[in-house]
Specification:
By secondary structure, this protein is an alpha+beta fold. The chain folds into two domains: 246 residues, no CATH class; 53 residues, no CATH class. It contains 15 helices and twelve strands. The strands form three sheets. It has an eight-stranded mixed β-sheet with strand order 1-4-5-6-7-10-12-11. Helix 7 runs antiparallel to helix 10. The longest helix is centred in the last third of the chain and has 16 residues.
């Protein structure tokens, strides 16, 4: 999108902080709740025979089913349902890219992206500072779109959208923090017999680094991507009111964003959208097809594949 439009959007949206709570499997509860909000009740058997069937095996949904003695799920059953104690996050907004550097910025079309950032609570910020002696975002630097108002960005989603076509495209989902802490943990385990070790010029006490890394990775290592995507769906559908959401597949996304080297983990653009029950489609977002340069790029694709979800 154009930078001027993005600035207007940010000026309207930025304000009070938005707290987002998440625990494992809560994405499944959110998706089933969206289905139930359209009806007074939905049969468990009907859900098992629908596109949402994979959600029915999730622990949170299995627990919900135990409360429906007549074989139906009702909207009120899902109200304030948490399978375990949720983790609080703070959502913030940022921007990324520019029209004159769009190939470097890894955007599908010239222009800028809106960034939704998932930030850790102050409890985790203090724990990180206790080990590293600086904030997480100071440690990561600002080469990527992390928050400039919070001190520990767990992950982010980059999005392009168009109000006229009522479409949003998820360009990227990423976490530098999880990757960095996983690297620190690996090095700390290797240096287990040493009192301290160095990592890119920073010195860590080995025992403290191992203890914190194990705690952090056990909490966020396996759920950061589902928490980030769940927050994005909430933001796009519930906060902004869009009706159509697209998500890059691995092959199409790499070509659209000119990624030849340093490609992202395949699972984020295959397993993750499938986990959320996105539909596979061959048509690109309409707002991309409207641009002549992008139409030419789309025609060069051997096979166009996108993930799609309607509100």
């Amino acid at each position: 999108m154009e930078a001027a439009l993005l600035q207007e959007i940010l000026a309207c949206l930025r304000g009070e902080r938005t707290v987002f709570h998440y625990c494992p499997d809560q994405y499944a509860v959110y998706l089933i709740r969206r289905v139930l909000n359209q009806y007074k009740r939905v049969g468990v058997r009907d859900l098992r025979n629908s596109r949402w069937s994979s959600l029915m095996s999730r622990p949170a949904i299995r627990e919900l089913i135990t409360h429906c003695g007549d074989g139906y799920l009702y909207p009120e059953v899902l109200e304030d349902f948490w399978l375990s104690e949720p983790e609080p996050f703070v959502l913030t907004l940022g921007q990324w890219g520019a029209r004159n550097q769009w190939t470097w910025s890894q955007t599908s079309r010239p222009g800028s992206n809106l960034v939704l950032q998932l930030n850790l609570s102050r409890k985790w910020c203090r724990r990180f500072c206790g080990v590293v002696q600086q904030t997480a975002n100071e440690f990561l630097g600002f080469a990527h779109p992390i928050s400039d108002s919070r001190s520990a960005t767990l992950a982010w989603v980059r999005m392009d959208f168009d109000f006229e076509t009522d479409e949003v495209l998820v360009e990227e989902i990423q976490s530098d923090l999880v990757r960095e802490i996983a690297s620190i943990y690996k090095l700390a385990r290797f240096a287990a017999k040493q009192e301290s070790f160095s990592y890119y010029g920073d010195t860590f006490k080995t025992v403290d680094a191992i203890s914190f890394s194990e705690m952090f990775l056990s909490t966020f290592g396996k759920i950061w991507h589902e928490a980030m995507l769940a927050a994005a769906l909430f933001f796009v559908f519930d906060e902004l009111g869009f009706s159509r959401l697209y998500y890059h597949s691995f092959e199409t996304g790499n070509k659209m964003k000119n990624l030849r080297w340093s490609k992202p983990p395949r699972s984020l653009y295959s397993d993750l959208p499938k986990k959320f029950c996105f539909e596979k489609v061959e048509h690109a977002p309409e707002f991309l097809q409207r641009e002549k340069t992008i139409r030419r790029k789309l025609k060069k694709l051997e096979k166009s594949c996108w993930f799609y979800m309607a509100a």
